[in-house]
């Protein structure tokens, strides 16, 4: 089947999508967007988190066919051309990237948190990121990055 979806603001078509194929697979393998990572395939690690119609979703749990006619924003779509999103900049500055496997999902989740909550408390940050697992266990720098991005957003 063919799936028509808007990805990062651009209409896209994925052809030869099979029933049961995940949105994650379609994004990575059919549309050439490898930013979202394939790890647990059970929605437990959050490394595949994307926006689906403006809401964070584990793309491994969404059938590609369910994305028909919908809007998807991946980690690649957070940046504005060559300019990184402030959340991405904060992750780089704080060294919140270790092996990098969890980073795309963390970025999308943190981006969503800061969009919804201008000045999140540490508890709110931890709660928001609870569905994103970092196997390198570098959570403190990730928390620092989210705090930095939120502080910068407040000043704008």
UniProtKB/TrEMBL annotation:
What is the enzyme's main class? oxidoreductase
What's the EC number here?
A: 1.2.7.4
GO terms (molecular function) for this protein are: 2 iron, 2 sulfur cluster binding; anaerobic carbon-monoxide dehydrogenase activity; metal ion binding
Start and end of every 2Fe-2S ferredoxin-type domain? 1-78
Keywords from the named record: 2Fe-2S, Iron, Iron-sulfur, Metal-binding, Oxidoreductase
Give one Pfam family, short name only. Answer: Fer2
Q: In terms of domain of life, where is this protein from? A: Bacteria
PANTHER family in UniProt: OXIDOREDUCTASE WITH IRON-SULFUR SUBUNIT (PTHR44379), XANTHINE DEHYDROGENASE IRON-SULFUR-BINDING SUBUNIT XDHC-RELATED (PTHR44379:SF8)
Name of this chain's protein? Carbon-monoxide dehydrogenase small subunit
Q: What is the scientific name of the source organism?
A: Amycolatopsis jiangsuensis
Lineage of source species: Bacteria, Bacillati, Actinomycetota, Actinomycetes, Pseudonocardiales
